[in-house]
Structure formats: structure tokens, C-alpha cells
Amino acid sequence: MNDRIIIDPDIQHGKPVIKGTRVPVVRIIGGLAGGMTKEEIIREYEVSEEDIRAALTYAGELIEEEEFHPLPK
């Protein structure tokens, strides 16, 4: 895990968050997916561009580690 993302059971029920904040990684990813710009996310959630990159990297690592199973046809 990178040093900008933490998981602490006492913060956001153990969801991955940006270190030093209570902003969940999913909120950053969701904002980008919903069309927010980096600048809007930085302003809205008071995170840095490095935090955004860390959230994207973290999400990518999770997908990379995921085991996929084909759906029946």
C-alpha cells in the first residue's frame, strides 16, 4: 500500500482514506468517474494532486489483484 492511503478501523469504518483526512478513496474515484476535474476534487475535498494519483494507484492495484471469473452465458 502506498504511504498516502491508510486503513484504520476508527476512520470511516475501516475504508481506505487519504492519509490525514477522512476522505475515502472511493469518493475520489467516484468524483473522477462522475466528471469532476482534479481541480474540483482538490477544492471540494482539500486533497492534493498527489493524493488523487495515490487513490487511482490504489484502485488500480486492487483491480490487478482481483481474481475474475467469467459469467455463465
How would you describe the overall organization of this protein?
- The chain has 3 helices and 2 strands, in the order ββααα.
- The chain has helices spanning 25-33, 38-45, 49-65, and strands spanning 5-6, 17-18.
- The relative contact order is 0.17.
- It has one domain: Arc Repressor Mutant, subunit A (Orthogonal Bundle), CATH 1.10.10.10.
- It is 47% helix and 5% strand.
- It has a two-stranded antiparallel ribbon.
- The longest helix is centred in the C-terminal third of the chain and has 17 residues, at 49-65.
- The model has no long low-confidence stretch (mean pLDDT 94).
- It has 73 residues and is mostly helical.
- Helix 1 packs across helix 3 (49-65).
- It holds the Pfam family DUF433.
| Largest sheet properties | 2 strands, antiparallel
What's the end-to-end separation, in Å? 36 Å
Look at the helices and sheets and give the structural class.
Answer: mainly alpha
CATH class: Mainly Alpha
Q: What's the number of domains?
A: 1
InterPro entries: DUF433, Homeodomain-like_sf, WH-like_DNA-bd_sf
Protein name: DUF433 domain-containing protein
Key features of this structure:
73 residues, mainly alpha, 2 strands
How is the secondary structure organized here?
Layout: E1 5-6, E2 17-18, H1 25-33, H2 38-45, H3 49-65
Antiparallel strand pairs: 1-2
Helix pairs in contact: 1-3
Pfam families: DUF433 (PF04255)
Protein name: DUF433 domain-containing protein
Organism: marine sediment metagenome
